[in-house]
Amino acid sequence: MPESILATFTVKRLEIIAPDGTADESLVPDLSGDELRRIYYLLLLTRAFDGRALALQREGRIGTYPSVLGQEAAQVGSAFAIHERDWVFPSFREMGAHLTLGYPLHQLYQYWGGDERGLRTPDGMNIFPICVSVGTHIPHAAGAALAAKLRGDRIAVIAYFGDGGTSKGDFHEGFNLAGVMGLPTVFICQNNQWAISVPLSAQTASRSLAQKAVAYGFDGIQVDGNDVLAVYRATREALEKARGGGGPTFIECLTYRMSDHTTSDDASRYRSPEETEQWRERDPILRYERFLAKRGLWNEDYAAEMKGKAGGEIDEAVRRYESVPPPAPGEMFDFVSGELSARQQRQREEASP
Amino acid sequence: MTQLNMVQAINLALREEMARDDRVVLLGEDVGRDGGVFRVTEGLFEEFGPERVIDTPLSESAIVGAAVGMAAYGLRPVAEIQFLGFIYAAFDQLFTHAARIRTRSRGRFTAPLVVRTPYGAGIKAPELHEESTEAFFCHMPGVKVVVPSGPYNAKGLLMAAIRDPDPVLFLEPTRLYRMVKEEVPEGEYTLPLGKARIARPGGAVTVVAWGSMLQRVMKAVEGYDAEVIDPMTLSPFDGETLLDSVKKTGRLVVVHEAPLTCGLGAEIAATVAQEAILHLRGPIIRVAGPDVPVPLAKLIDHYLPSPERIRAALDEVLQY
Ligand SMILES: Cc1ncc(C[n+]2csc(CCOP(=O)(O)OP(=O)(O)O)c2C)c(N)n1
Ligand SMILES: [Mg+2]
């Protein structure tokens, strides 16, 4: 018997806005001018949040912080497509998604300031706490999607993670479960091409991350992660497919980590400034401004006004964060279990002056 | 002799062992070009090249699992897990394989590997960066667990760990990484695993502490006639040094930052109760973290055993 081809596959890549701001009109999502401008504001707000976080860290007003600089479009664009009833399982570098979803800004500062009360998601918001242990939350998204499916709820479940996360067993196990059970899960990878000092080329031998989905029996797509509309479009389609019973999708947002890994890191030890400079030219906000300008939705004055508004919102968030009284020592016991053991109760009393 | 901090001492031990024995290979996340997130492996990638200092993909299970295979094949892998709080995906590899490959193969295959990992609280880092779950690993027959308490013993213990014929978990207290400098000789010296050190002689009460709690204990006992034992190896535990001391003092306080319940203090207390209860004048006191997940920066000082709590325990037991 001759050899035959058992499988071939293709992986799509989606870009909508060119670097000069021109767009493929057939792909531009049907969003109103107000919605397009709202996305712009969220990009600015993310950048302002991030810049302020770095400044606060330098002044010792928050702790170690992972910057999202350069990844704003991949976060805002994806989160803008998420509905209130969907569930979201974030990692630790999606503050742009958090604030697009309406997570209280001051709570994000509070969390990065070393106060876990910042992780208390407001009621009615289906956002799981930030997951620091890379990739370990990916199966949770599959599980929540399974529960939604069993309940007959037409919602989607989203997991965010980084390129490094795709090396973890939990990534593969979560993907397999979602694939084999046809779960309403949308996996969104922020492929910023670095996992601390490890470049993408040392993380995987795959041509793309998107194609990893193929092995689990569902679609993967790579989008230009610095093109907010491409990210939005791909996410919206995947969410609609999931809610409609079409199963999981993996979206790889190809972007770039412009900052050090965290404020404890020094990226100059392992990557060249030229590489980072190249990506500066592909700044997601700059590109979107050019797109909006061509549609008459943007000019310098408008930008200044929006930046001022974002700055004001950030000032208010910092003020709120810093006016929250420190947690009482007993707080560390309050959520360990529904009910404390006698020993824990004793320890709680001893810890409370 | 030079004055080195613990990071430098560990780095020196690795460099000397790698130069001495070309089977010694480092692997882990960011250990190569970056020199490790705490710079413990700094310069080794440049000196020994990418085949001896291997930057792995982000996968703790693959790191420890690969180390088992490498060790069985004849290398001497020294794996780094970036923080102890991220080791749990590799727990299976440690427990199911590293700890028992010698047993399972009836001695035909062994796993002479070291897993180094930063450990303990007090650097105000995010969640899971401040864990001290040493007791899990002491409950794994076949794995040795080592915790250095200073630059000098860190070097000697790590050299011994690398030469040990069985898997060793080497827990490096992050708080001590740059806290003190000590004379650390160049060249080979090993400190035997499984042997405790009397960090301070005394006659009225025995205090056992390790890692960064040892530093705190040494300050807290000033003015007390306390004998302080630094086990350095938590598993196997040096019961002889412990029992000799307790038979002399008749009192025991154990201090650890891990949660109280089923922490290593329980094992130490049980050993003394079983082997030396008739020498005790008063109750054994454990001063430990409370039974809660390690909190973030804003509450960590309320979590860790404070000097006041340590002294209160001494005062209490000394009443007997
Ligand atoms: C299981 C686990 N191992 C190691 C770490 C330490 N660590 C934090 S972030 C990181 C790199 C993550 O890379 P990636 O998934 O690409 O996300 P990015 O940081 O680029 O957003 C590492 C190794 C961790 N948090 N969790
Ligand atoms: Mg990354």
Automatic annotation (TrEMBL), chain A:
Domain annotation Dehydrogenase E1 component: ranges: 43-329
Keyword Oxidoreductase in record: yes
Alphabetical GO biological process terms: branched-chain amino acid catabolic process
Superkingdom of the organism of origin: Bacteria
Requisite cofactors: thiamine diphosphate
Catalytic activity: N(6)-[(R)-lipoyl]-L-lysyl-[protein] + pyruvate + H(+) = N(6)-[(R)-S(8)-acetyldihydrolipoyl]-L-lysyl-[protein] + CO2
Listed GO MF terms: pyruvate dehydrogenase (acetyl-transferring) activity
KW Ubl conjugation (keyword) present: no
Coiled-coil regions listed in the entry: none
InterPro entries registered for this protein in UniProt: Alpha-ketoacid_DH_E1_comp (IPR050771), DH_E1 (IPR001017), PdhA/BkdA (IPR017596), THDP-binding (IPR029061)
Alphabetical UniProt keywords: Oxidoreductase, Pyruvate, Thiamine pyrophosphate
Region span, Disordered: 322-353
Enzyme Commission designation: 1.2.4.1
Subunit field text: Heterodimer of an alpha and a beta chain.
Function text: The pyruvate dehydrogenase complex catalyzes the overall conversion of pyruvate to acetyl-CoA and CO(2). It contains multiple copies of three enzymatic components: pyruvate dehydrogenase (E1), dihydrolipoamide acetyltransferase (E2) and lipoamide dehydrogenase (E3).
Protein name: Pyruvate dehydrogenase E1 component subunit alpha
Organism: Geobacter hydrogenophilus
Gene this protein is translated from: bkdA
UniProtKB/TrEMBL annotation, chain B:
Entry-linked Gene3D superfamilies: 3.40.50.920, 3.40.50.970
Molecular function GO labels: oxidoreductase activity
InterPro entries given in the database record: THDP-binding (IPR029061), Transketo_C/PFOR_II (IPR009014), Transketolase-like_Pyr-bd (IPR005475), Transketolase_C (IPR033248)
UniProt keyword terms in alphabetical order: Oxidoreductase, Thiamine pyrophosphate
Pfam families the record matches: Transket_pyr, Transketolase_C
Claim: Oxidoreductase is one of the keywords in the record: yes
Top-level taxon: Bacteria
Boundaries of every Transketolase-like pyrimidine-binding domain copy: 4-179
Cofactors that this protein relies on: thiamine diphosphate
Protein name as annotated: 2-oxoisovalerate dehydrogenase subunit beta
Native source species: Geobacter hydrogenophilus
